[in-house]
Amino acid sequence: MSLLLDVYGFASVILLGILLAAQSLALGGLAFRWALADPLAAELGPSGARMLRRCERLLRVSALAIAIDLAASLSIEVALLTDSLDTALHEAFSAGFVLAGLAQIAAALAIAALCRGRGAARRALVGLAALGLVAAATATSHAAARLDARAGLLVATALHRLAAAVWIGGLPYLLIALATCREPGAWRRIGRRYSSLAVADEVGKVDHLDGQGVRRGKVPS
């Protein structure tokens, strides 16, 4: 048991870092594709099609990384829960954090399966999966543990997560686009669209409350 705790203490930090990076890449990739890659792919010709394929590949890998990371993390956490509290397996899987993790896995797998190709129906399904991913991740945040003003804090946390993902998670896709599309004027068009997309990061700079309900400033983006 002590060995399992030591392993979890180390692995949880690594897995959390990978999870946050993968979530940012997946959500930022979706925003980048919808706002930039899809509209410009046809206009930029063959290089635009290559850009779109490369962005889709990174998006799919990121979504799969979320599912794999959470599966590993939940396996360790469920093992700890059943061993330390002598809890039955079905009871451990009914815990709130486990259900939230399973919901994130399902949403990530849906994004990975549906991120390729176009169409309004496919985009709507991917959008719902992305919202589900954000909601499930927010359900295990510090805001969810608050007893007062929880609804507002949950909304602020979700918006902050989404805005940070659009900005930080979109940067690798921007590099892919710039490295792939080198036609005259392509960088200017890509940069203009990405600048508009990055404005969404301002949504994450929301006022938040400290434990006593006093306004303290802004959440760093």
Keywords, please?
elongated
Number of helices: 9
Give the domain tally.
1
Query: Spans with pLDDT under 50 lasting ≥5 residues?
Result: 203-221
Number of strands: 2
Strand content: under 5%
Order of H and E elements: HHHHHHHHHEE
Q: Mean of residue pLDDT?
A: 82
Strand order of the largest sheet: 1-2
What level of helicity do the residues show?
A: over 70%
End-to-end distance, in Å?
39 Å
Largest sheet: 2 strands, antiparallel
The SS-based structural class is mainly alpha
Outline: elongated
Kindly provide the radius of gyration, computed on alpha-carbon positions and rounded to a whole number of angstroms.
Answer: 19 Å
Q: What's this, in brief?
A:
The chain has 221 residues and is mainly alpha-helical. 76% of the residues lie in helices and 3% in strands.
3D architecture notes:
The relative contact order is 0.14. The chain is elongated, with a radius of gyration of 19 Å. Mean pLDDT is 82; it is low at 203-221. A two-stranded antiparallel sheet has the order 1-2. By secondary structure, it is mainly alpha-helical. The protein has one domain (2-218). 76% of the residues lie in helices and 3% in strands. The protein has nine helices and two strands.
Write the layout of secondary structure elements.
Elements: H1 2-41, H2 46-85, H3 89-92, H4 96-114, H5 120-138, H6 142-145, H7 150-168, H8 171-180, H9 186-198, E1 207-209, E2 215-218
Antiparallel strand pairs: 1-2
